[in-house]
């Protein structure tokens, strides 16, 4: 990425926007009445078990999560098979489980005008589907720009603004998602730049422990962000091997089972103002061979242990 001096200054300003107003939160404040985070389950964790959407909902309820983060394709498959999203939504509400976010792959960021227009239509469709289920946010990763070097971040910001406008009309907020393996939006600074330069009141970001590591950013950068605009944070862990250059989604492990500085990460995002949901997102084939309830309950227990360690 080739940024001139003016662009670099703006990048720094984007990242530093809220430093002066960060909340000076200490561990003692979360030992009282304030709860640090909520707990959500991304259904990628049991993708290999091929559960239907209603089975995923039952799993999340039984495991004791407060939120679910399903995939758009599973929502669509459930509806196509004759399932009632209205009934499933009621079941979630009755069990105090929120549809915190959802995973979609609309090509909103691409350079081709016609393809991008189609991508926004896809996003509109996905948002409508999600709204039926009671969701309020959707992931917005850089699909279609992952192999482009030196992507124009000002163009990305304008396109994210357009996506946010679609979301505002549909009642769904698109979260700018970090993808560490991508050549675009793989760094925290890029994420902050695009979200800031978009200039949209609904702009927000969706970070991920594994993707921050994979993309090469320092976790220290989390201190520079406004946590109030992080509504969902993907949590996971990663082993020492394979190394960063070759590590992949499949190597993600449960929180606390790897080498990620999870305690420091959670403390930093909390101090930055984040009070959102920690969404467990794993793609490990070993977990796909296990009983889904075992994966979900073990995952929740380990995330809660990490939170307790961070604020105990």
Can you give a write-up of this model?
It is a single chain. This protein has 312 residues and is of the alpha/beta class. It has a single domain (27-311), classed as Divalent-metal-dependent TIM barrel enzymes (TIM Barrel, Alpha-Beta Barrel), CATH 3.20.20.150. It contains twelve helices and eight strands. The protein has helices spanning 5-16, 27-30, 53-63, 72-80, 85-94, 113-133, 153-170, 188-198, 209-215, 262-271, 285-288, 292-311; strands at 38-42, 67-69, 98-99, 137-140, 173-177, 205-206, 232-235, 277-280. The strands form two sheets. The chain has a five-stranded parallel β-sheet with strand order 3-2-1-8-7, covered by helices on one side. It has a three-stranded parallel β-sheet with strand order 4-5-6, covered by helices on one side. α7 (153-170) packs across α8 (188-198) and α10 packs across α12. The longest helix has 21 residues, at 113-133. It is globular. The model is unreliable at 8-33 (pLDDT under 50).
Strand content: 5-15%
Helix-and-strand structural type = alpha/beta
Q: Give the number of domains.
A: 1
Low-pLDDT parts are 8-33
Count of strand segments: 8
How do the helices and strands line up, and which of them pair or pack?
Blueprint: H1 5-16, H2 27-30, E1 38-42, H3 53-63, E2 67-69, H4 72-80, H5 85-94, E3 98-99, H6 113-133, E4 137-140, H7 153-170, E5 173-177, H8 188-198, E6 205-206, H9 209-215, E7 232-235, H10 262-271, E8 277-280, H11 285-288, H12 292-311
Parallel strand pairs: 1-2, 1-8, 2-3, 4-5, 5-6, 7-8
């Amino acid at each position: 990425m080739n940024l001139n001096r003016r662009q670099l200054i703006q990048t720094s300003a984007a990242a530093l926007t809220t430093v002066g107003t960060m909340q000076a939160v200490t561990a003692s404040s979360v030992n009282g009445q304030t709860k640090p985070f909520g707990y959500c389950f991304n259904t990628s964790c049991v993708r290999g078990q091929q559960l239907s959407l209603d089975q995923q909902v039952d799993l999340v309820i039984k495991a004791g999560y407060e939120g679910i983060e399903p995939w758009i394709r599973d929502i669509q498959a459930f509806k196509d098979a004759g399932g009632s999203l209205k009934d499933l939504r009621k079941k979630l509400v009755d069990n105090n489980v929120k549809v915190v976010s959802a995973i979609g792959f609309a090509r909103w960021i691409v350079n081709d005008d016609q393809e991008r227009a189609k991508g926004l239509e896809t996003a509109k469709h996905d948002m409508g589907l999600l709204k039926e289920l009671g969701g309020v946010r959707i992931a917005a990763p850089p699909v279609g720009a992952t192999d482009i070097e030196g992507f124009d971040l000002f163009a990305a910001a304008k396109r994210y603004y357009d996506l946010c406008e679609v979301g505002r009309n549909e009642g769904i907020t698109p979260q700018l998602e970090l993808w560490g393996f991508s050549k675009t939006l793989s760094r925290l600074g890029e994420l902050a730049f695009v979200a800031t330069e978009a200039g949209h009141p609904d702009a927000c970001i969706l970070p991920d422990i594994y993707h921050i590591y994979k993309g090469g950013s320092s976790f220290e950068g989390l201190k520079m962000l406004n946590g109030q605009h992080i509504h969902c944070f993907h949590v996971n862990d990663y082993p020492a091997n394979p190394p960063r250059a070759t590590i992949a989604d499949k190597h993600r492990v449960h929180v606390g089972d790897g080498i990620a500085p999870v305690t420091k990460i959670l403390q930093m995002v909390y101090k930055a103002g984040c009070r959102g949901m920690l969404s467990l997102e794993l793609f490990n084939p070993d977990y796909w061979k296990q009983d889904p309830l075992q994966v979900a309950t073990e995952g929740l227990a380990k995330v809660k242990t990490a939170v307790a360690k961070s604020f105990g």
